[in-house]
Amino acid sequence: MARRALLAGAVMAVGATVLAGCGRSDGADGGAESKGAIDEQPAKGTVEIWAMGNEGEVLGELAEKFEEENPDVTIDVTAVPWESAHDRIATAIAGGETPDISMLGTTWVGEFAATGAFEPTPEGLVDEDSFFDGSWDTTVVDGTAYGVPWYVDTRVLYYRTDLAAAAGVEAPTTWDEYHAFAKALQEQGAASGVSLPPGGFDSWQYVAPLAWQQGGDILAEDGETFTLDSPEWKEAFEFYASFFEDGISEPVRLEGGEIEQKFISGEVGSFFSGPFHVSLLLEQGGDAFAEQFAVAMVPGADSRTSFTGGGNLAVFDDSDNRDAAWKFVRWLSQPETQIAWYDVSTDLPSVEAAWDDPTFADDPYLSVFGEQLTDSKAPPAIPTWAQVSAVIDQELEKVTRGETSVDDALKSVQQQAESIGTGQ
């Protein structure tokens, strides 16, 4: 999960009061329906789309190709900063002044779907099986899909190959190997064999996969009962905390810019991150550094499941040009478009077929991300996830700092999650 996912999570809670009072709850019971299928005729009219961050800055370049194929359509792109995006969407919904399409952080979908503001994805618009499972799941709320995945992010293990070679170890595949691997890198001079956040903001993204890898989950199959005090979560918390207890990971949260420099200098032997770090490391480390690091799928237990995030596209129920809006979303979901989009934005394709292109298949870094995406997962699309995840972050930090036991932390997490509820 890359910087975009982190920024999306940072502003999730903003505007919650506005959403709660907007009075558009007719789609919150999971019974919402699309207004009908979309034909194959050329798109017409003007389509207004909000896109966040870098996507908003460069989408216009790709949209020109859609306009060439559909001469009677105009795509009007508004770039919205990530830090204000959530609040801006909430305010637009409350005031009834929405664009036709909005990009959404994957963890926002449940919250906004509960307002009834978005139209469910028309049947037959896209083939849901063409997307990575974990990515498509980010669009589904109570069995109904809202929009489509646009681009994806996932986490893999970045590690110093020179330190690993000196230690005589290879990229780990299991938990036991992972712990020993990180320790071995530390013995080669790294202050942290692996850099992990000691709790705090979005640290749940690091510990939740450890529960998923054992078959655990956040909610039971009924989609309503929290299971955050399960044996799988206990094992996940204990294993995560062991890196701090054994001194393998320094109890310091490295912010943007720090992790790259410490990894290049050898102070950090390994860390988990998304694809954007490849270009940062190559730029900052220089050509020679390309031979000193590699990426690998995350080590695991029963599976090697990682976290997945990214960006989705959803059409507002009040769209003034619904037909053309959905046609643009469908076009953005085509493999050839997603390959072209990577050239413009470096966003990874959400459609599996795009990964057969040599751009991804033959790249030693990107190909690993493609493999990891086949075993990646997102949190449940519930309106209250921002509050629940913040509780996990808080209690995990207490554990890594030795302020509470794992049992007490998870008891607190479960109790608070039950008090918060799913918001459904």
What is the highest CATH level, the class of the largest domain? Alpha Beta
The CATH topology of the largest domain, please?
A: D-Maltodextrin-Binding Protein, domain 2
At CATH level 2, the architecture of the largest domain is 3-Layer(aba) Sandwich
* Count of alpha and pi helical runs: 18
In a nutshell, what does this entry contain?
With 424 residues, this protein is α/β, with parallel strands linked by helices. It has helices at 3-10, 16-20, 53-69, 82-95, 109-113, 133-137, 161-167, 175-187, 204-212, 231-245, 258-265, 276-285, 322-332, 335-345, 358-361, 366-373, 385-400, 406-420, and strands at 45-52, 73-80, 101-105, 140-141, 144-145, 148-154, 156-160, 270-273, 293-296, 306-315, 348-349, 376-377.
Q: What order do the helices and strands come in, and which of them pair?
A:
Blueprint (H helix, E strand, L loop, with lengths): L2 H8 L5 H5 L24 E8 H17 L3 E8 L1 H14 L5 E5 L3 H5 L19 H5 L2 E2 L2 E2 L2 E7 L1 E5 H7 L7 H13 L16 H9 L18 H15 L12 H8 L4 E4 L2 H10 L7 E4 L9 E10 L6 H11 L2 H11 L2 E2 L8 H4 L4 H8 L2 E2 L7 H16 L5 H15 L4
Parallel strand pairs: 1-2, 1-3, 10-12
Antiparallel strand pairs: 3-10, 4-5, 6-10, 6-11, 7-8, 7-9
Helix pairs in contact: 1-4, 3-14, 9-10, 17-18
